[in-house]
Amino acid sequence: MRSSTRLLGLLAYVAIASASTVVASIQSDLGGLLSPGASISHNVSVAPRWSEFHAPQPGTIVTVATEADVEATVQYCLQQNIPFLAQNGGHGWSGAFHLGEDGLVINLRGLNNTVFSADKTQATIGGGAIISEVIAQAYSNDVQVLTGNCNCVGALGAGLGGGYGNLMGLHGFMVDNYLSFNVVLANGSLVTVTPEQEDLWWALRGAGPNFGVVTSAVMKSTPLPQAQNTAWVGGLWFTEDKLEQVIQGIEDLTLEAHMNIFLYFLTSNGTPTILVTVFYFGTEADGRVAFKSILDIGPYNDTTSVLPQNEWNAGADGFCIKGERKPTYSAGFDHMIPSTWRQIWDDYTDFLNNPNTSSTTVVVECYSLDKAQSIDADTASFANRDIRFNGFAISWYPDSSLDSAAEAFGSSFRNLLRADDGLSSNRTYVNFAFGDESNEAVYNTNTPRLQQLKKEYDPKNVFNQWFDL
After folding, report:
1. CB distance 299 to 362 below 8 Å
2. What is the signed CA dihedral for 175, 179, 184, 190, rounded to 10 degrees?
């Protein structure tokens, strides 16, 4: 018994010594390859994750300052056989990450510039820019650019999965608006990818994290004076007894290009309630006409107003708080069924009986798809042009002892949506997926081609942390 204890102690000592040697090697060897503005840390708090649930646990974080720093870091990791993951906002909530202390995170946040062409029709966005930074730069330069709807999320991370956003009814998905990418590939080379590289261009726009680290992107933008860059946005709050009317109202609503609508189950002052957020790119008068059927249901509070683009996303800033545990389950579906949503409401309020779960939220997003669906689905590997609704349930709490209850709630939520989804197979938007989905659920019929291209561009499966092909 004593010898076994000694052996275990020796093994632990060797592991610690080995880890210390690796850390020292990274610090000295990689440090000399990076630009003066880059830094190396072994403290995970340098690049925190939005959710601590099954989050990556790297032993090293390299915060880059240039695109060449990304190239040098990837090359070093390949040479030293170090697993790695690139992140920006750290909001990817998949529970399938498997990066441990022997791994390295490339923190892209230093690449946060957004610049515009002289005619303001193109924006070059750094791989470390978050959505609020892109919008702020665009708005201050009298430019409108398509982004996602959560200020703290990485702009390119949101886009590479497909890219939903307030203006997609006018411009399509973000993947439809990219013009080129700078990407570090699995062989460690930094290259520019355009539509001329047909296969890789197709693969990056929908399954990007499987094929490289995108260090910057050029995308379409629109010159627009600030005075014209406003929308009627905000919340309509409903009591629980109006749930079925709200659900049916959203199901029956025709969304024109200027519109989108979201549904939330959340708590207000500790009480579960129903929030519908509306978006109309235009005047309040026209917006109220467009959403008359929802307004007629009778919200108990109306917090809508006309806001400039740099304030459109402010209402969702509460979702930006990092830390704690947030396992999130999602499904795509084509119909809002009142009886299904009554069951989801009951399950949601039951879950709130657990301690410290009041931030738990259920969300449904619905956008105008006419423009997006006018673009050939085969032009990008993004697979969800035909999906009308995306729903997700965020279980939010600090104590890991609730993990099983949270996973049961989330899984039940997903099953309820799938039971009446109106689709021929299970479908989930890759950026919203939990992590246990099949490739076919997130990449749909594009899976075989993506898998073949994966063998060509990443034969050693270097990029394996995000819905690995």
Report:
1. no
2. 180
